[in-house]
Amino acid sequence: GLLRTAAGVALASGVATAQAPTGDALRPVPVRVGMCDWSLGKTGDVTAVQLAYQCGLDGVEASVTFPDRTRSLRNPEHLRAYRDACHKYGIQVPSVALGVLNSEPLKSEPKTALWVADSIGIAEKLGATCMLIAFFGRGEIDMQDREGVTRIVEVLRELAPRAADAGVELGLENTLSAEDNLRILEQVNHPSVMVYYDPGNSAPRGRDCPAEIRALKGKVCQVHLKNGDHLLSEKGIVDCQPFAAALKETGYDGWYVLETSSPSGDLVADTRKNAEYVRATF
């Protein structure tokens, strides 16, 4: 929590926070709300920053795209433009995301370990304190696949110290139970490897999300929030009230990153409503 609390408050480039501390003694860090750039319709695009500002958000989860470097954050000019936009609009980058790992799995493709290593440096330059390492689609983790799990663990062990030096936590987002995620974390055995929790991945599988959050206490680096074709305040995938209560109980003080849709077709208005709901609920 200390790493996210201190380093996540401002970008490395000196960008001011978009939301000032409230002074609430019960919450030393204000609720900070970001959004995935792909949910903004701007995957890897610098224009996501201005749109996030228009939506009343505090930050953007920025995608690091591969293999094309032209419009990727791997391109120094594009990275510089992204930092400049963040400074202009007062938007932070709480995390970078490697969605490419869903089609090019970390468990089987040697080049992807290099992609994660490269992205640690990008995260550091953007002031991000978390990297979303995705395990969906072809990249989904099967705990019965010993070879695949072993490779994932070995890569994470190798890269965790580098991530720690950069002030970045490696967040595993997947379809596994809290118990299986803890098994992987125990094998890696490094504090910089944590869980990127999304109740939208667990609730449809019949899991008790508040119970999972309690089981993962101190191991969650960031949280995604989604609710299908509904606003977060409406009945849908996740019952946010008990989920929020569990996070408060465990002392979670990290970012909430929206992976939401736009039910009305007005992305800005719907996102503002979702962000306001998160700030009021979490």
Report on this structure.
This protein is α/β, with parallel strands linked by helices and 282 residues long. It has one domain: Divalent-metal-dependent TIM barrel enzymes (TIM Barrel), CATH 3.20.20. Helix content is 39%, strand content 14%. An eight-stranded parallel beta barrel has the order 1-2-3-4-5-6-7-8, surrounded by five helices. Helix 5 packs across helix 6. The protein is globular. Mean pLDDT is 92; it is low at 1-10 and 12-25.
SSE layout:
Layout: H1 2-7, E1 33-36, H2 47-54, E2 59-63, H3 76-89, E3 92-98, H4 111-126, E4 130-134, H5 146-165, E5 169-173, H6 178-188, E6 193-197, H7 199-202, H8 209-215, E7 220-225, H9 240-249, E8 256-258, H10 267-281
Parallel strand pairs: 1-2, 1-8, 2-3, 3-4, 4-5, 5-6, 6-7, 7-8
Strand order of the largest sheet: 1-2-3-4-5-6-7-8
| SSE sequence, one letter per element | HEHEHEHEHEHEHHEHEH
Intertermini distance:
16 Å
**CATH homologous group name:** Divalent-metal-dependent TIM barrel enzymes
- Number of self-contained structural domains: 1
Mean pLDDT rating: 92
Instruction: Kindly state the percentage of residues in helix.
Output: 25-40%
Q: List the total number of helices.
A: 10
- In the CATH hierarchy, the third-tier topology is known as TIM Barrel
Total DSSP E strands: 8
Proportion in β-strands: 5-15%
Report the radius of gyration as a whole number of Å. 17 Å
